[in-house]
Write a structure and sequence with these properties.
alpha/beta, five-stranded parallel beta sheet, 8 helices, elongated
Length: 182
């Protein structure tokens, strides 16, 4: 199978179309922020990433890549053994890392070699965030907004709760402010 490189703007529009969104970054990077619903299949643990960075700066990039390849191969094998053996042939993940480079590329290569159609987020997490910021300039024009206002005790919160329970998308500013003068 081939690896399909997907621009961040397209990934933003199609994020729900993938069977899985896989973050190849370290657990600490994943914990800070991630794409919606992303699973963490780290190519390197936090400790391994620090070690490889140290080897890269103190010894040489070549030595770091050799050692990193061993660790990445071992980690990818563990992810596939733990999470991938039950996936059907038509499973299609979106894979990303920080900049869309070596970590996600290594994972995508192995998944593709197995036979899955893998989508690789071009530019990685950084590009996706830029696409979100850009989309925020035009996204609000796609929606119709209704503002609910009134004096304290008039039932605004109850109305919003009922609307939300019936499936209407609601942004409850009072609730977000813990009912302290939003």
């Amino acid at each position: 199978m081939a690896i399909v490189k997907l621009p961040a703007s397209e990934a933003l529009e199609r994020i729900d179309a993938f069977d899985a969104v896989i973050d190849a970054r370290s657990p600490a990077e994943h914990a800070l922020d991630r794409l919606p619903g992303a699973l963490n299949w780290p190519s390197l643990t936090d400790e391994e990433r620090a070690l490889i960075g140290t080897i890269y700066t103190q010894v040489s990039p070549f030595e770091a890549r050799k050692r990193g390849a061993v660790l990445v191969a071992r980690n990818i094998a563990a992810h596939i053994e733990r999470e991938g053996l039950d996936k059907p042939r038509d499973w299609q993940p979106l894979v990303y890392c920080w900049r869309g480079g070596q970590r996600s590329g290594a994972l995508a290569t192995v998944l593709s070699a197995i036979g899955w159609r893998v989508h690789l987020l071009e530019g990685g997490y950084q590009a996706f965030r830029r696409a979100v910021v850009t989309a925020l300039e035009t996204l609000p024009t796609r929606f119709a907004y209704r503002v609910v206002c009134g004096v304290t005790g008039s039932g605004k919160s109850r109305l919003l709760q009922r609307l939300a329970a019936s499936g209407v998308q609601v942004l409850d500013l009072e609730q977000l402010a813990n009912h302290r003068g939003s």
